[in-house]
Design brief:
Elements lengths: L11 H6 L6 E5 L3 H7 L5 E4 L3 H4 L11 H13 L5 E5 L9 H15 L3 E5 L5 H8 L5 E6 L5 H4 L9 H17 L3 E5 L3 H10 L4 E4 L7 E4 L1 H4 L17 H18 L28
Parallel strand pairs: 1-2, 1-8, 2-3, 3-4, 4-5, 5-6, 6-7, 7-8
């Protein structure tokens, strides 16, 4: 059972030090129940802007607001004590200028209590990463398949499959590392490219649809629990069919209510306490 031996929250420097020592375990969360359940087992929780699609059923991540991300991140931070928590910065909150990015990222750290932020983008955003890091904000850089660039990429498609595309992503990753990013999130990359980036990077890489050679892995929690619904990316491994458990519980509850079997007297106030039920029936002793 892979529970943590530590009893304090993993810091960004400690996460960085894990490169080459052991694999980093990460999942996404945006609510108290999920965060509490995974906290003993994961090193890193990413409060992803995938919240827009998973929690709200929106078509993309693009219209998630800073206020919504702060609220979800605060819920995760307040209900964990071990995992390092990284918050996605939503679309439009950091691209305009380094100064705007700093104001919004500083708000995120101060109001949510998270440990770091994650930004999507190529080498054009390296200057913003440097600006933030120099002012005390740890940054995880997200390259490859970037959901906030959905309209430019023409959909959720694997990246780095050609030599030219791979070279561009390598340049993006290198620029972010040079700017001071403490980690790279590699999404939807050709496996050889993700493996090469990991080998070349002095900072840990977290893969999602990238390579087993990455320093760590992350999945959208609802996908790996069978709660995602619809088409799943090929890189998702489903570890449980929690949707079936929920459907069964809701169906049994609905049947009980309609048949008058719930609530019972023991679920009500102001009535005599029901006699204890002896669940272990033993045969009477012979006289």
């Amino acid at each position: 059972m892979s529970v943590h031996a530590r009893n304090t929250r993993l810091t960004v420097p400690q996460l960085v030090a894990m490169k080459g020592q052991r694999k980093i375990v990460s999942l996404t969360a945006y609510s108290k129940p999920m965060a509490q359940l995974m906290d003993p087992f994961v090193d890193l929780i990413i409060v992803g802007d995938s919240t827009a699609m998973v929690a709200y059923g929106r078509a993309s991540t693009l219209d998630l607001s800073l206020e919504e991300m702060v609220a979800h991140t605060r819920a995760v931070v307040d209900n964990t004590r071990l995992a390092c928590v990284v918050a996605d910065m939503p679309f439009g909150s950091y691209q305009e200028s380094p100064e705007l990015a700093y104001r919004h990222c500083a708000q995120m750290l101060a109001r949510s209590g998270c440990d770091a932020v994650k930004l999507e983008g190529g080498k054009a955003l390296a200057g913003t990463v440097r600006f933030l890091v120099e002012r005390g904000i740890p940054v995880m850089a997200h390259v490859g398949l970037m959901p906030q660039y959905l309209n430019l990429m023409g959909g959720f498609k694997a990246q780095g499959l050609t030599e030219a595309a791979a070279r561009t992503i390598q340049e993006d990753a290198h620029a972010h590392l040079e700017a001071g990013a403490f980690s790279l999130l590699l999404e939807g990359l050709a496996e050889p490219l993700a493996r090469a980036l990991t080998a070349a990077s002095p900072m840990p890489t977290i893969g999602i649809g990238a390579s087993p050679g990455c320093d760590g892995q992350v999945l959208v929690t609802e996908d790996m629990l069978g709660l995602g619904g619809g088409h799943l990316p090929r890189f998702v491994k489903v570890y449980a069919d929690v949707a079936a458990v929920i459907r069964d519980a809701v169906e049994r509850y609905a049947d009980d209510v309609r048949e008058g079997a719930f609530p019972e007297a023991r679920h009500c106030y102001g009535l005599p306490s029901p006699a204890p039920v002896n669940s272990e029936k033993r045969p009477a002793k012979a006289r």
